[in-house]
Each structure stands twice: as structure tokens, then as C-alpha cells.
């Protein structure tokens, strides 16, 4: 069974496979139908229409119009057969679909000419199965990491604006250094520390909160996370050095006011490293945090 959509006076009319060649020809000759679009899910039916019905319709219409002196008769009707794509089964829900929290996607945009690391070598933890469920408290814990990261992203945007002002002569390098040193990006060897002051209570006493407290807790709770955690720690060190490079570039600019290139290189490298890292970290540990928390017993 197929459905034929017939165009007539701008409208659509559905007919079926039982509609014979003669009737389709009549639609073309009497109603001026120029296009028939056939859709169906059965490949054999579509093949039959394309190889038998469509040629017969074209031939009869061309013959009738030729009798009327229309030399272009064969060009005035088009019959198209389109096989409808079989309905695809819906993809199973991912762990983050079930959790209701969505890690930030890395869109792949990069500013610098050199990559901070080879992303293809990053390890990944196995995704949790459909038997794993989450509660609202766990979802809030996972979302908290994303919220903290969003604050870092906001600071990075502000830092890029500040350094653009230095480049344009609207701000001194010394004032830019002061602004950088006040940012959470610069504090606590680049960890969650500064922002966690208002969220994580006593845990902020740890210098290097993720590396010294959260990460060990996660690896103890789920040993398969260990390669991911090791990679995250390594990337923390690179980001820390990148922030230091921005500061050093500002110092060089104080002594060499015409040198803007080193500032741009440093901030572009930091941007690429930080945005890549934050996305990777969210993808790998937001879900475990939602099950185990930042510290033992939180969930």
C-alpha cells in the first residue's frame, strides 16, 4: 500500500495503491497535475511503482498530449517515488539523561597555535548502566561542579577583556596583574578553593581541594576513575603554569610596552587549556559526584 500525494490547485490529495494508472493519467490530463510524490515503507512496492507504474503514466500522458499537438508532452509530468526511512528505534537514555544534569560541551573552538595537550590520549570512565538511579540531592551535587566551572569561565572571559584593554592602551599591565591576582583562577593553585568557600564549608581548608580531597574520595569510591583522576591532576598543573605565564607576560609588557604578542599567546593558551579541561572534567566526574558527593557521606 502506498500513499500518493496529488497536487491540485495548491492542495494535497491522498490516494492509494489501488489508484490505477488510468486514474493517475486522468489526474494529469484533466486536472493538470504535474507532479506525483509517492511515499511508502515497503521497498518492493516503491520499486514496482518506479519501474512499472511511473513509466506507464508518463507514456500515456505523453501520448495523449502529443495527439493534441503538444510537442513538450513528455516533459510535463514528473512522478517521483520516495521510500520512507524505516522508523529508527529511539536511542537509550544516557546517564546524564537519567541524572537530569548536562555537562558543558566542548565545541572544539581554539584560539592558540599550539595545543596544551593531546586530547586523544585522555582516558574515559565507563558509563553507568540503566540500573543506576539518582536522586535530587545527587543531581544538585553534580550541578554544583558545573556552576563552579561556569564561574571560572566567566572569569576567563573577563580576563580576556582586561588583556584586550592592555593591548589597546586602556589599562596598564600593572592594573591587569592586580585584577588577575584577585581572581579565583589565580588562587589556591587553581582549584575549586575560592568558590567553594561559600559552598563546601570546612573542606576549603584544604589547599588544592580537588587534588587533595575530592579526587582521592572519588577514586576510593570508584577505582575505575583512577586513570581519569590522574589525567585531571596533570592538566591542573599545566593550567597553573598557564596562569603564571599570563602574569609573566604582563611583567614583560611593563618592561617592554610595545610587546603585546606574548600576552596574546599566553591568554590564548590559557583559554584553550581551561575550556578544554573544564568540559572534560565535567563529562567524567559530574556523574560520579552525583553518586558519591564531594566528600564521604555527603550523598
Overall mean pLDDT score? Answer: 80
- Spans of 5+ residues with little confidence (pLDDT < 50)? 1-11, 192-208
Strand order of the largest sheet: 2-1-3-4
Overall domain count: 2
Describe this structure in words.
Helix 5 (173-182) runs antiparallel to helix 8. The protein is 54% helix and 8% strand. The protein folds into 2 domains: 3-83, no CATH class; 95-292, no CATH class. It has 299 residues and is of the alpha+beta class. The chain is built from 9 helices and 4 strands. The model is unreliable at 1-11 and 192-208 (pLDDT under 50). Strands 2-1-3-4 form a 4-stranded mixed β-sheet, with helices on one face. The radius of gyration is 32 Å and the shape is elongated.
Q: Could you provide a short overview of the structure?
A:
This protein is α+β, with helices and mostly antiparallel strands and 299 residues long. 54% of the residues lie in helices and 8% in strands. It has 2 domains: 81 residues, no CATH class; 198 residues, no CATH class.
Give the helices and strands, then pairings.
Elements (H helix, E strand, L loop, with lengths): L2 E6 L2 E5 L5 H11 L3 E6 L2 H25 L10 E6 L11 H5 L36 H32 L5 H10 L10 H4 L12 H13 L4 H30 L5 H32 L7
Parallel strand pairs: 3-4
Antiparallel strand pairs: 1-2, 1-3
What attributes characterize this protein structure?
2 domains; single chain; alpha+beta; four-stranded mixed sheet
